[in-house]
Design goal:
Layout (H helix, E strand, L loop, with lengths): L1 H5 L13 E8 L2 E10 L14 E4 L4 H15 L3 E2 L1
Antiparallel strand pairs: 1-2, 1-4, 2-3
Length: about 80
Amino acid sequence: AWLAEHRVPCLVQQRVRIGRDLRITYVGGEIIHGYWRVKASVEDLSTGTGSGASVLDFQIPRAVLAPFIADFAARTGIDIGG
């Protein structure tokens, strides 16, 4: 009701049970930073790293990801993302 009343755009996503997710920052289609956020449990609903509910792993497969990121940036026209 509140969203309809205030007409706030939002994105709703189905909950996905995952133990880790990859966070990437890119500029000009090139990866400049990235890390895996590893959760203690797939039942953990937190989305950030500040609460201490997850650990960070900075060993990302840059060579594997680079073509995907470059293609995504080129196709969408989104030159900076993260």
